[in-house]
Amino acid sequence: MKWSEICILTTNEAIEPISNILHEAGASGVVIEDPKDLMKDRETSLGEIYELNPEDYPEEGVYVKAYLAVNSFLGETVDQIKEAINNLLLYDFDLGHNKITLSEVNEEEWATAWKKYYKPVKISEKITITPTWEEYSPVSSDEIIIELDPGMAFGTGTHPTTVLSVQALERYLRPEDKVIDVGSGSGVLSIASVLLGASEVHAFDLDDIAVKSTTINAKLNRVGDKISARKNNLLDQVDFQVEVIVSNILAEIIIRFVEEAYDCIKPGGLFITSGIIQAKKQQVKDKLLTAGFEVMEVNEMEDWVAFIARKPDGKQG
Q1: What is the pTM for the complete model shown?
Q2: I need a surface site. Which of 54, 183, 218, 269 has the fewest CB within 10 A?
Q3: Which bin fits 48, alpha (ψ -120 to 50), beta or left (φ > 0)?
Q4: In what order do the strands lie in the sheet with 62-69?
Q5: What does the pLDDT look like over 179-238, one tens digit per residue?
């Protein structure tokens, strides 16, 4: 089969929504090429070799690349992608150069090239994320390993928004807490929750592929019995309460279900939200406060923001 690589030159701010657009368009895999990666100091205690070629990276902005099957619908699919990306301007996203190019790649290159970007990464005090094809041994007795097979459909679990979410869970999740993961994607936050002590996790996503991916990765990490993954639109029709809701999703989506989240969290429970760009920070904070939450922490990494909000003990939802 022939594949076409679509490459969008854009901004760091637009990575997440453009990646979502590409997934929804049926892209088989997304690769981010950010010049900042060339500057990062990487741990190589495991003997990893990072072969990052500066010529692959833009001088300004970032490349978001995805792979589309070459078929009779390709032109129409690309047009739909372009239109959806341009529509992001309506939500005040800075698209930068917004330059889109297409090139053909053969299946062998496509199937292996993206894996060079994915190595074991320690994302919090305890948790290390590793791809299924990499050999990795814990370096400390309390280290928690999460194995992921992104199947080229979701991120590798090392994006700043995921890291902020996992770090919050590690600090605040208590043994036997029940958790709802809204927009579960690959299932990394659901898996982390169980490995950190949650008794059960309800993983919701509107995408069938995400539900399947969460289920597969949960079984891979031997926590499938504690994670219930199903298709659901945010918190629609959810009529039970949990101690923690975690959601790594776009700010525009978060503000839509803050009130429902308040109702679904037990008094004293937490709402952990990530995936928020700096420009939307105040908007999300205002929405949380209006709904009745207390904002405990605001954490930032690169251009991303995460909130840890608490539902007061004495106020019933």
Answers
A1: 0.71
A2: 54
A3: beta
A4: 30-33, 62-69, 2-10, 99-106
A5: 999 999 889 999 999 999 999 999 999 888 789 889 999 999 999 999 999 999 999 999
